[in-house]
Structure formats: C-alpha cells, structure tokens
Amino acid sequence: PVQGAIFDLDGVLTDTSELHYRAWKRLADEAGIPFTRADNEFLRGIPRRESLLRILKGRKVSEEKLQEMMERKNQYYVESISLLTKRDLLPGARSLLDSLKTAGIKIGLGSASRNALLVVEKLGIASLFDAIADGASVVHQKPAPDLFLHVAGLLGVSAEYCAVFEDAAAGIEAARAGGMWAIGIGPHERLKNAHWVYPGLNEISVTDLLDRLSGMKK
Ligand code: G6P
Ligand code: MG
What we know:
This is Beta-phosphoglucomutase. By secondary structure, this protein is α/β, with parallel strands linked by helices. Helix content is 43%, strand content 11%. The protein has helices at 16-31, 37-41, 48-56, 63-81, 93-102, 116-122, 146-155, 169-177, 206-214, and strands at 4-7, 106-110, 131-133, 162-166, 181-185, 196-198. The longest helix is centred in the N-terminal third of the chain and has 19 residues, at 63-81. It starts with a strand and ends with a helix. The structure holds 6-O-phosphono-alpha-D-glucopyranose (G6P) and magnesium ion. The site of 6-O-phosphono-alpha-D-glucopyranose has 17 residues, from α3.
C-alpha cells in the first residue's frame, strides 16, 4: 500500500521549468552561447552547476567565472519566481494534494532546487507538506536516490511504500534506485522507465492510482 507521496516541484506542481529556461537563456545570450528550449529539456531535474556545465559544452571557464554565472542565473530565476502566485499551480495539483491528504497519505517535497521552499510558499501550498527537502538537503543529487530517501525518512514511511511524482528522467531513476514507485508526469518518451505515466496531474484519480499500484510489481 502507498503511504507516502513525494513530489518533485519544477515541472510537476508548477511550470518553473520555463522560468529556469528563461534565466539560463538570458545568461547564455549574454555569454554568446547558443541555447534553445529543446536544449533545456535535457536540464530538467539537473542541478544548477551541472546544468551550467552542460550549457557551456566543454568551453573552458575558471571556477570563479562559473560561480559568478551560477549566481547571475539564480538572480534572474529568483526575480521571476517572486511573481508566482497560487494561479501558477499546474492544473490538478491542488486537488491531488487534497485527495492524498484525505486518503491519509503523507505528502513530501523532494526538489533539487535550492529555491524550492520559496516557490511552494509563493504557490500557497507550503503548509500541505509533511516534509520538505531541497537541493541543500543531501550531497548526491538525482539520479541518486538520496533526496527521496531523505524525504521518506522525514515522513516516517518506508521507501517501498512511497510513490514519487516526477517530470524528469533523472528523477524517475532516483525513485527506482530508492525502491519507490516512480510515477512520470509528462510525455512517455521522456519517462520510459516510470512504473506509470500521466500526461498531467489533472489526469490522476487517487483511488485508480492506488488500485493500479496494488496490482503491480515493482
Ligand atoms: C530542479 C530543476 C532544474 C534546476 C534544479 C536546481 O531540478 O528541474 O532545472 O537546475 O532544480 O535549481 P536551483 O533553483 O537550485 O538552481
Ligand atoms: Mg522537475
């Protein structure tokens, strides 16, 4: 039985992937580096430093410059999230969180973003989580299972009874590596290794999902 639901944030509960894209794009334009929305798809779930290294594609940059670029991108990103409100929750997010709560399932947040707390506060959902962990909570980021295992520990739910909701391939790997159910949110092509995929949170019925998982093997 599923006793804990762990949510990724960016691209699952809200479309901040687009805001990450715009912040990276502005930085890349300033540096004269080509960067497209399609390139950004591969950065879903990827931590800040690793994202920048991928954008630089082997261009040599000093550690000092790397730090400066990461800070500048973050400044652009933080500016854009300051405008978020509860209207920026993706369709179905609020009602899914409410249904899980009603079903007695513990709810956790497992986001690689160091801005995660600020974002859930802006979205007006911070108080719905029984546990929140972000990019600063563990050393090894997704696809390592550490962040989700940490959240499961905070929820007091054993990993095998947790279901993770993720839009990124790295997050699906992390959930599987932790022995959890991996529920993909988004296109099948990106989420091939998920146990089950929904195009969006608004397609999920908690009872159907629980039924489905109870009849499945990991
Ligand atoms: C999430 C997003 C990534 C982002 C990462 C770090 O995983 O999907 O696009 O790079 O968080 O976010 P941060 O806000 O700490 O730079
Ligand atoms: Mg994500």
